[in-house]
Write a structure and sequence with these properties.
- With 253 residues, the chain is α+β, with helices and mostly antiparallel strands.
- The chain has three domains: 62 residues, Arc Repressor Mutant, subunit A (Orthogonal Bundle); 91 residues, Alpha-Beta Plaits, CATH 3.30.70.980; 71 residues, 2-Layer Sandwich (Alpha-Beta Plaits).
- 46% of the residues lie in helices and 21% in strands.
- It is built from nine helices and eight strands.
- A hairpin with a 5-residue loop joins strand 1 and strand 2.
């Protein structure tokens, strides 16, 4: 897996995102609204909506918020018109960064993303410049506090996982996008608690950076993720644990 995903998982594990829960709910609301708009309000036949609702539940979003978001998407309640936007660029050292956004103001979001790249040593690129580096994957995270990681790996493979990575305190399970729900359901039936599950863009290959550039890039990735309109950020960087720990000390200090 890429070190960027590892950093996102560390933040999830340590609750770094808790202080941004209001912002997280905004992002989840936008995803539900667009899912309903594009595929209807019935999660039984709308795969994207099922995923969005499940992710909202995983993050303890109140049921009232979820239902209100669905009504906004269906037009029962007045809501903002949102457009999907994929922006591609290069981080410090020429690394690939993919930004997915839902916005009610395309020009504003492009400008904000461009500013973030520029201020942190990167540059916004043209459509198609880095998208080819990434594949769509289902990504399931399971905490291993009370589980045998090796046994979990076997269970995940039996359930249909393409790949499994064991990290400290959790396991990352990768699936084909269309298989993620089945794998998740199979694991839950075996009483394995799922910490999170989402569709993600994963790099086909990764690169490493020297420490100064790596820390600068992590700051850029966090800045992008902090923007309300940005839903997902992917990179092809493999950050060593020592770099992630140093950056964590910087942002928590």
């Amino acid at each position: 897996m890429s070190g960027h995903s590892k950093w996102a998982s560390i933040k999830h594990q340590k609750g770094v995102a808790d202080a941004r829960r209001g912002q997280l709910f905004t992002k989840l609301t936008r995803e539900i609204i667009v899912a309903v708009r594009d595929g209807g309000s019935n999660p039984e036949v709308n795969f994207r909506l099922r995923l969005a609702i499940q992710k909202a539940r995983d993050n303890n979003m109140p049921l009232d918020n979820i239902e209100r978001s669905i009504r906004k998407g269906s037009g029962e309640l007045e809501g903002t018109t949102l457009a999907e936007l994929v922006l591609e660029g290069y981080g410090p050292g020429g690394t690939a960064i993919l930004v997915e956004a839902l916005t009610d103001n395309r020009n504003r979001t492009i400008q904000e993303v461009r500013n973030a790249f520029t201020k942190h040593g990167g540059s916004l690129g043209e459509n198609g410049c880095v998208a080819w580096i990434f594949d769509a994957k289902g990504l399931i995270m399971v905490k291993t506090d009370d589980l045998d990681a090796d046994e979990l790996v076997l269970e995940a493979i039996d359930a249909g996982a393409d790949d499994v990575k064991v990290e400290s305190g959790y396991v990352e399970i990768f699936t084909a996008p269309e298989e993620m729900e089945k794998v998740r359901s199979t694991l839950e039936q075996k009483k394995i608690a799922i910490a999170s599950a989402e569709l993600a863009k994963m790099p086909k290959t990764t690169v490493q950076l020297e420490e100064k550039v790596a820390l600068q890039t992590l700051k850029l990735l966090d800045k992008l993720e902090d923007q309300d309109e940005v839903q997902h950020v992917a990179s092809n960087i493999d950050f060593p644990d020592a770099i992630l720990e140093k950056y964590q000390l910087q942002v928590s200090g």
